[in-house]
Design brief:
- The structure is a single chain.
- The longest helix is centred in the C-terminal third of the chain and has 23 residues.
- Strand 32 and strand 33 form a beta hairpin.
- 49% of the residues are buried.
- This protein is α+β, with helices and mostly antiparallel strands.
- Its EC number is 3.2.1.22.
- Belongs to the glycosyl hydrolase.
């Protein structure tokens, strides 16, 4: 984050101007301004670098109408444009009133400034000119991280139903400018998530979305827009939607250069019946502005996630080194086999042992058992407790895998409650991975899952659950809901709210419980799920070549303490394609370190090396998990041949640098690497980690940042190193 002098003048926070109809939202390095026009419309007046004076902001006025095809209402930067009147640009909301009117006319009514979730909040109330609909726009300001958190609440003040058909969280506007802008997004697929994509912004609309009922791996609800920015410098606007279901982000640009970003819950197959005196609130849309490039955006979102999103007390504690048994044993789970793995894991310094899929009845393959969350008496004839006690006795926490939203047709649960599945009575029930999706929007399904999981956790002393979700929703029918007079198109929201309810209840009953979010890898790694989980499994792909790209992308949103990575036996053709264990550890150490290899098959040399790197990781863990992260070399820019990441303590007293080179076919020397975020006039002691015999060196912060440091890499392929910097007192 910038370290230059904060601009004097208007202080950070929310300021209402003397007219009572315009406001400044001021952070340490940015200003966002909005105001009410003579017509009663709320307009965005400015968003960008911090301005020193309130008088720097122009009054709220509709733009001049260019023609009957380019009307003022369409050209206006409304903070929450709705479907109604002469609006033909992006819209944030649309509704149908009881008399069939499909047009909204919102006008400013009132405002107040308060506080919500520890942050100052501006609440702006808009009311329809003819119908009893009030929309409250919430603006929370995280001044230290230069972020604005927006949401919208719809209130039916009357008695007759109002049908919401679109309810986005916010619309943001970037002004017209001479130079072109660039859009950065994250795209991918299963085992190839969150890869950085960049494209020039031209006239038209770009849509990124998920319609699977889950956040999804095809795209991520995040954007960044810049003008010739780099990782280290340049203006960047960025944002993300805190929602774990269907979402939509639309970036629309006029030929004249103005850009609008609108997004929230996807309008695809969406409806919400707003009964009399009832309300509906959208998820948060978190956005910010940085002048210090993409790394500046990272720092702000990382700090926000740590400070305001992740559950406590876990967010203030180091995330443990993890071992997961899946790749070692798959479904061949037994008390004896898991105990042997646990003993090996504990000897390496592992702190959390997780039993993955296969511990419940009929689970010898993925065709049966989902939904029957009780211990398999054949695999665990003495119950689960002896294994839990053994793991705890070895000084580790105990974790277990579950997939609560799913059911196999071959299960006791499905045979008892086939009506608990999303379905249409006249259609077949599509299976994916041999499973169907439970309707967790139903209260009885929520109660069933809460009861089972509560007993599993409480009766056995479970410390951690890996919550998986391995297929999207299909046949989104709810016959009983429709028969009761409700609209089944609400299920996309009610499913997510059901997941949140189950997790929130379990955490309330078990305050020390940790949860990992997994959905076939990284398909549910959003800020909404992170309000109730502690980490995410960012991909099922553990190949270090792939992970550098995946981890670069997800790092735009998630701090190191959240992103899980394992050292595994991938690639499987190790005889032909050997990747050194050191390199695999170094890649996995960039986040929350885990191990997934079959430890019983590792050599004594491999086990000794694993012990060494786990000890190193624990030494640098505070920096990796909670430091300011700088991507010094992007794998996306080097075709994966190079990558370098630095994590710096908030006071710049310490740093750790990871460097990776995949290949060196020409045996060329390595350029010096320039670091970031250090104190120029301080001296730093630089130690090569994992090699205690290596002689430490000393350099000034200025030298490390401007001249760079020579890297101690061999000329071989898959060369890597870790450098630890400490300020010399």
């Amino acid at each position: 984050m910038q370290t230059d002098q904060i601009i004097q003048g208007v202080t950070s926070g929310i300021h209402q101007q003397p007219d009572g109809k315009s406001w400044l939202l001021v952070t340490e390095y940015s200003t966002y301004a909005l105001g009410v026009s003579e017509e009663g419309l709320l307009l965005q007046l400015y968003w960008g670098a911090r301005l020193p004076l309130g008088t720097d902001i122009a009054a709220a006025r509709l733009p001049r109408e260019r023609s009957s095809q380019d009307v003022a209402l369409t050209l206006a930067p409304e903070v929450y444009p709705v479907m109604g009147g002469l609006r033909y640009g992006e819209i944030a909301a649309q509704a149908v009133f009881s008399d069939g009117t499909r047009d909204i006319d919102l006008r400013f009514a009132s405002a107040e400034i308060g506080e919500k979730q520890g942050l100052p909040e501006l609440r702006l109330h808009l009311r329809d000119a003819a119908y009893p609909l009030e929309v409250t726009l919430s603006y929370r300001v995280d001044s230290k991280n230069d972020l604005i958190i927006r949401a919208a609440s719809f209130h039916n003040l009357g008695d007759e139903e109002i049908l919401l058909e679109r309810a986005f969280s916010a619309a943001w506007h970037l002004p017209q400018q001479f130079s072109s802008r660039r859009l950065t997004t994250l795209a991918g697929h299963w085992a190839g998530e969150s890869r950085v994509q960049q494209q020039p912004i031209v006239a038209g609309s770009v849509q990124i979305e998920s319609r699977k009922g889950v956040t999804g791996s095809t795209a991520y609800p995040w954007f960044a827009i810049d003008t010739q920015a780099t990782e280290q410098q340049g203006e960047v606007y960025f944002g993300t939607i805190a929602w774990s279901g269907n979402w939509n982000l639309r970036i629309s640009t006029r030929i004249t250069g103005e850009t609008t970003i609108a997004g929230g819950i996807h309008e695809h197959d969406f409806a919400w019946v707003l009964a009399g005196k009832q309300s509906f609130t959208t998820p948060d849309f978190v956005a910010g502005f940085a002048e210090d490039g993409f790394n500046g955006g990272r720092h702000r979102l990382h700090n926000y996630v740590r400070q305001h999103v992740l559950p406590q007390p876990q967010a203030s504690q180091p995330r443990p080194v993890l071992y997961n048994s899946w790749e070692a044993t798959t479904f061949d789970v037994s008390e004896e086999g898991q105990s042997k793995l646990a003993e090996h894991a504990a000897a390496l310094g592992v702190e959390l042992f997780v039993v993955d899929d296969g511990w419940f009845p009929a689970r010898n393959h993925d065709h049966a058992g989902l939904g029957d969350w009780r211990v398999d008496p054949q695999k665990f004839p003495n119950g689960l407790q002896p294994l839990v006690d053994r793991v705890h006795g070895l000084g580790m926490q105990f974790g277990i895998w579950v997939e609560p939203e799913m059911v196999n047709p071959d299960s006791d649960l499905y045979r008892a409650h086939p009506d608990w599945i999303y379905h249409f009575p006249t259609r077949s029930r599509s299976e994916a991975r041999n499973q169907l999706v439970l309707n967790v929007g139903r209260q009885d399904v929520q109660e069933y899952l809460i009861d089972l999981l509560d007993k599993l956790i409480g009766d056995h002393g479970v410390d951690f659950i890996k919550w998986d979700m391995n297929r999207p929703i299909s046949e989104p029918g709810w016959p009983e809901y429709v028969a009761a007079g409700h609209n089944a198109r609400e299920i996309w929201v009610r499913h997510v709210e059901g997941v949140y309810t189950i997790m929130d209840t379990l955490r309330a009953r078990h305050p020390n419980l940790s949860i990992e979010s997994c959905a076939s890898g990284g398909s549910r790694a959003d800020l909404g799920i992170l309000e109730r989980t502690d980490q995410v499994w960012s991909s099922d792909n553990t190949h270090p070549d792939a992970r550098l790209f995946i981890q670069e992308g997800i790092s735009h949103i998630l701090p190191g303490r959240v992103m899980g990575d394992w050292v595994t036996d991938t690639p499987s053709d190790r005889v032909q394609n050997e990747i050194p264990l050191t390199y695999r550890f170094h890649v996995a150490m960039m986040g929350m370190l885990g191990i997934g290899g079959h430890l019983l098959h590792w050599s004594e040399e491999d086990l000794a090396e694993a012990r060494r790197w786990i000890a190193v990781y624990k030494q640098i863990r505070p920096l990796v998990q909670d430091g300011d992260q700088y991507w010094l070399i992007s794998p996306s820019a080097t075709a994966g041949d190079w990558a370098a990441v630095e994590s710096v303590a908030p006071d710049a007293s310490e740093a750790v640098v990871f460097v990776y080179r995949r290949t060196n076919p020409f045996w060329e020397t390595t350029p010096r690497l320039r670091l970031q975020g250090l104190t120029p006039n301080s001296t730093y002691r630089v130690q090569l980690m994992g090699q205690p015999d290596a002689e430490p060196q000393q350099y000034s912060g200025a030298s490390l940042m401007h001249q760079g440091i020579a890297l101690p890499l061999s000329r071989s392929s898959y060369a890597s190193c870790i450098l630890h910097l400490q300020k010399v007192s």
